[in-house]
Design brief:
Elements: H1 2-8, H2 14-23, H3 28-37, H4 45-57, H5 62-71, H6 73-77, H7 82-93, H8 99-106, H9 109-112, H10 118-149
Helix pairs in contact: 1-2, 2-4, 4-5, 4-7, 7-10, 8-10
Amino acid sequence: MLMEKALSSEDLLLRPALLRAVGRSNDPAVAKWLIEDFSDKRLRLSERLMGISLAIASPKTSEQAFAWANAHLDSLLKSGGGIFLARSLPQVASTFCSVDKAQAITAWRPHFANNSGALELDRAIERVQDCAVLKDQRGAALSAELAAVK
């Protein structure tokens, strides 16, 4: 219903707001539907890519959406999203904070070689690695400090 209302609208404020609401649903079933199953010619490429990015950035759908993006990386990069996708996908992936995700993102390097997103990918890898190291080194101390505040 919300998606239909969004796609039926050409309102420059309403359409993107409704599409962001769907992408940010934080519901795994909605994310699966949006990323894997939804197909409508009225959905612009930039809007589809935004939905994928929002699903990766949402806590309850991030693993599922990242796994899908990881499995479809070549087709995403060849989809016509150009420099915007090549730079935004690493930015979205930089929100993770684990050694495993840093390794998965590092595996993207061959796909981003000679690509406008190569520098952004290197930055994303560094952010994810740094976060994982900081979490490992300071996680227990920070948890103790937060518990003391409560």
